[in-house]
Amino acid sequence: MTLRPALALLIAFTLAGSAPGALAGDATAPAAASTAAPKYATLPLEPTATEADAAQLSARFLTRFHYDAQPLDDAMSARIYKKYLDQLDGEKVFFTQEDLAKFAPLKTRLDDAIWNKDLTGPFAIFNRYVQRAKERMHFALGLLPKGFDFTKDESYIVDREKADWPKNQAELDNLWRERVKNDWLRLKLAGKDDADIRKTLTKRYNTLLDRIKQLDGEDAFQSFMTAYAETTDPHTDYLGPRLAENFDISMKLSLEGIGAVLQARDEYTQIREVVPGGPAAKSGKLHVGDRIVAIGQDNGPMVDVIGWRLDDVVAKIRGKKDTTVRLEILPADAGPDGKHELITLVRKKVVVEEQAAKSKVIDVKDGDVSRKIGVIELPTFYADFAARAKGDPNYKSATRDVAKLLTKLKADGVQGVIVDLRNNGGGSLDEANELTGLFIDKGPVVQVRKADGDVEVEGDDQPGLAWSGPMAVLVNRGTASASEIFSAAIQDYGRGLVIGEPTFGKGTVQNLVDLDRFAQTAGEKPQMGELKMTIAEFFRINGGSTQLKGVTPDIQYPKNGDEKDFGESTYDNALPWTQIPPADYKPVADLKAYLPQLMQMHDARVAKSPAWKLMLDQLAQYKKMRDQTTISLNYDKRLAERKELDKIQADFLARRKAIDGDAVPSNPDSTLDDGLNANERSLKSELKAEKEAKEAKDVELDETAHILFDAIGLIQSNPKLAAEVLPYGGKFSEAVAAAPAKGTAGASPGTKQ
Asked: 42, 57, 236, 467: which has the highest count of C-beta atoms within 10 A?
């Protein structure tokens, strides 16, 4: 998705891995790490011949093979121009209208820049962006010694997406005066004195200035090509070499490295997480909070990495399996002048379990009745296609992992299963197809229409089920793409209940094009990156599309308000909703037979639920705050608003404690605005807050388990109803334990979406 917040691009490279940090490992074995320090470019940044070739080659693919192929002409150039400016300065806080007047001649020439392999124009815009960003940081720093007068009745526009660019330097200066004043006021309201505020903001702006200085030509090219790709449709992307490696890791959930998640903090690269089972964890010598100050390869020299950008540090740590890397560490509990430690690690294959499927059992009680409900949490549809192609019997696959979890849940005696797909943005189309096969006997799952109009039906041809009992799929606005295929198929078959919010609405299929394979060069091929290109559209087996509309749940939960800014319908170039004839399929059950009863029971329960009422009130408060586009810069007014907000938050906290007991944040102030940005709090406090968030009561999941609890009760009490709502007339319900588990044979390598 397009980066909208101001300064997002300045720090984007620090997130080029598994959020919130980057994994110190690699999916592909790069060339031997250089011993030289990176030379951060000075302006002007200039495109390379390889980048020019990659741009032209991408254009050839996009204009010939894209699902909705459009010519790269002056009209497309104008759209790229707009997208590029939004990419760089979506909040209109760096460029002025005077800058835009100078850029204007390029508006209809970006197509020529690509076809003629002359990227000086796009790079000129990026260079001006870097120049303006540096100027803004210096301007912000220059305001700090003076302080601010908070008795004036001023206001600041916090959402500038629809605002105009400042007319000139004077307007831009005033905008940044208001911006810095708001930064100061937030810290002041949090109880900090002027000296602490000045210190915090000086550090903040200097850190951002350092990040700006580290932007390089690859960042410029990535930004421009992202703008071009996303102009064709919202889900086509260009992945430069850095992003391509991380995308590969996210798909196969494994890498070769030391098994540590890193993040940039001040001038250091810090250990944010040690991955269980990896070389770092097994050594027992690397700990959360440790800072990496130097890196060496095998017996080579140590290279100081203080002040480096994160991806350059990660590149030093990456390398082939069974090779050695040495890390010079400043321990977490040591001061800046503390004693350094030298750690030697041998790189190995590391499995990234954080994004792998997980399961748990919820015991649901109602009166004297208790039932076990199994939950499978699936963050993404992953598959290690390369490992499968090599014949690796242990290759990672979402379907294989879920099949194993279902076997375990059956052994635990669960009576129903929830597949939690909240915030699952998709992944492998084949995995969505294969995963559906775990819950149906056999039949079509999805229809795929290609650019030429040809429609292929993909489905499950293996008889038998891994789970034939009652099931539900929990979704939200972040449920997209492959997740919508699975949810729609379960709904169309009547196989289970779909519960939650309407989903994202992404009904297109992307494929990866490795541009290096098509490079017209002799000898070693350059690193040109990859093109993630839309090649098809998928349709439900009932003939409808999930495009734009998404999947509408059988039982809907309250929306959180993000649908105005998040989802396929928010893109101005999204494909329209269409439909095709249905596939040849037959629903296996009719959930309408008990859906009204379940909805009635759900409504009655949540009406009396303190936890549900608290969730609704918190959602209402969140919507109220997110709809606020302008805030006062007057201290007294903001203090009154702060006190009112504190009172609301304190009430929320008291209600939550009454519901959950001790399962609430230990520090009540952690729920309030302390005026700090990401990475300005201590790592310990950030990790603690994340842990508490994970352990907090999940009201939606608990209610979904209760709905499934109700469904099981209705089925058990009414044999006629059971024949209608259980799959295949309920005939598999007792034989499921004896049926061979499906999904142990992996999905074929195929389209990634």
From this structure: 467
506 catalytic, yes or no? yes
Measured from the Cβ of residue 550, the count of other Cβ atoms closer than 10 Å reads 27
Distances, alpha carbon 166 to alpha carbons 2, 139, 172, 173, 339, in Å: 22, 16, 5, 9, 50
> Which of 492, 476, 707, 497 lies closest to 587 in space, CA to CA?
492
Rounded CA separation 89/83 (Å): 10
CA distance 446 to 538: 7
pLDDT band at 41 (very low <50, low <70, confident <90, very high): low
pLDDT at residue 527 in the model: 86
The model's pTM is 0.89
CA distance 726 to 728: 6
CA distances from 369 to 53, 392, 595, 709 (A): 67, 46, 21, 10
CA 234 to chain centre: 15
- Please provide the average confidence, as pLDDT, over all residues in the chain: 88
Which candidate in 188, 252, 348, 506 is catalytic?
506
Catalytic one among 492, 516, 554, 710?
Answer: 492
Q: Is 250 a catalytic residue?
A: no
pLDDT tens, position by position, 572-627: 999 999 999 999 999 999 999 999 999 999 999 999 999 999 999 999 998 888 88
Annotated catalytic, 481? yes
> Nearest-CA neighbor of 353 among 7, 704, 690, 18?
18
What residues contact residue 151 under an 8 Å CB cut-off, 6+ apart?
634, 635, 636
Q: How far apart are CA 736 and CA 441, in angstroms?
A: 11
Relative to beta strand 471-475, strand 497-500 is: parallel
Report, in this order, helix, strand and coil percent for the chain, each rounded to 5: 45, 15, 40
77, 254, 428, 481: the catalytic one is: 481
Q: Is the distance from CB of 256 to CB of 349 less than 8 angstroms?
A: yes
Q: Is 234 left (phi over 0), alpha (psi -120 to 50) or beta?
A: alpha
pLDDT tens digit sequence for 504-562 = 999 999 999 999 988 776 556 678 999 999 999 999 999 999 999 999 999 999 998 77
